[in-house]
Predict the 3D structure of the following.
Amino acid sequence: MSTISEEVKEKVKEVEVNTSSKGVLGFINDSYHEVTKEVTWTKTNELYSSTTLVLVASLIFALVIGGIDFLFKGGLDIFYKYIVK
């Protein structure tokens, strides 16, 4: 089990002091700066391709599950019709 270094503990204290002294408006301002300047956003074409991949995979998965359900229903119908009278 590793321990947190003193340097990391000091940074955490510094961040806690800075955020508590700025108040709500400081928090909102810092959040806006973080989202607009610091965050690396996904490129639009990469986002579209990932979305397409998820949609196609979901459709294939739904078709497979639907097919399995159809086969089980048919099998159970035959079982109840001919075997369980």
Q: What stands out?
A: Residues 1-41 form one domain. The helical segments are 6-38, 44-83. The chain is about 85% helix and 0% strand. The chain has two domains: 1-41, 42-85.
